[in-house]
Write a structure and sequence with these properties.
transmembrane helix
């Protein structure tokens, strides 16, 4: 699904062509606005490339022995997954910015508009992709057997209904991505795994691995603090002229 709608996004952008009077500078007119936008952008990147929390659960279900540890195929799978993600997302980001400049819409399909049938198909692919995300949540919870099947099915429907209501009521896509990317995914992606690794393996102080993990920890903590601030600032700016369900 990701390859489908991302290919439509950058392919339709190329077909649309570079827009007249396109600008590639900073969108904000003040230094403070630019800084907040950078914070939000970092949170958005963290959201797009988060996934380490799911990786741990996947590896836990794989057979592993001292002779054939699960980390070997898992490492190959992670590399392949992130290469695939980069192939999907980087063309959209680079070509979208090339075509529309700093006025690119947070939802590039809105900026494309035509052909209508192709944009509708891309949005359908996005919906199918998101529905698949609920299934991942469903089976993950079943594996750990936290709640019964019937209760979980009910809870899953409630989560889906709530997220749909929230998305319709507060359609601040770019700000929410940055906010949750920093607040939710920065810890699980950048610094909590590093803290656990340091606590378990206890590498020699000031060694390369020790430095690398502490750099990730510091970066992750800063990202967790700054990205939600940038996202919240963008949401506040967008909410000033927003009317519910208008």
């Amino acid at each position: 699904m990701t390859r489908s709608y991302s290919t439509i996004a950058w392919g339709a952008s190329v077909d649309k062509g570079v827009q007249p009077d396109v600008q590639y500078g900073y969108k904000a007119t003040t230094t403070a606005g630019t800084v907040f936008n950078i914070f939000n952008a970092l949170g958005t990147v963290a959201f797009a490339y988060a996934g380490h929390n799911v990786v741990l659960e996947i590896q836990a279900t794989m057979p592993s022995t001292p002779e054939n540890p699960s980390k070997a195929p898992m490492w190959k799978g992670v590399i392949a997954a992130y290469v695939a993600i980069a192939i999907c997302y980087f063309p959209v980001a680079l070509i979208g910015f090339w075509i529309f400049g700093n006025e690119v819409n947070e939802n590039i399909f809105i900026a494309l508009e035509k052909p209508v049938w192709l944009i509708a198909m891309a949005n359908l692919f996005v919906v199918v992709h998101l529905i698949g995300g609920y299934q991942v949540l469903h089976y993950t919870d079943l594996y750990f057997n936290f709640i019964t099947w019937s209760s979980q099915a009910y809870a899953l429907r409630m989560i889906a209904a709530f997220t749909m209501f929230f998305a319709i009521t507060f359609p601040f896509f770019a700000g929410l991505l940055g906010f949750f990317g920093g607040f939710s995914f920065a810890p699980t992606t950048y610094f909590l795994p590093c803290i656990m690794w340091l606590a378990i393996y206890k590498p020699k102080k000031f060694s390369l691995s020790w430095f690398a993990n502490w750099i990730c920890i510091v970066f992750g903590v800063v990202l967790m603090i700054m990205a939600p601030i940038g996202g919240l600032k963008l949401i506040i700016d967008q909410a000033k002229g927003y009317k519910f369900y208008s």
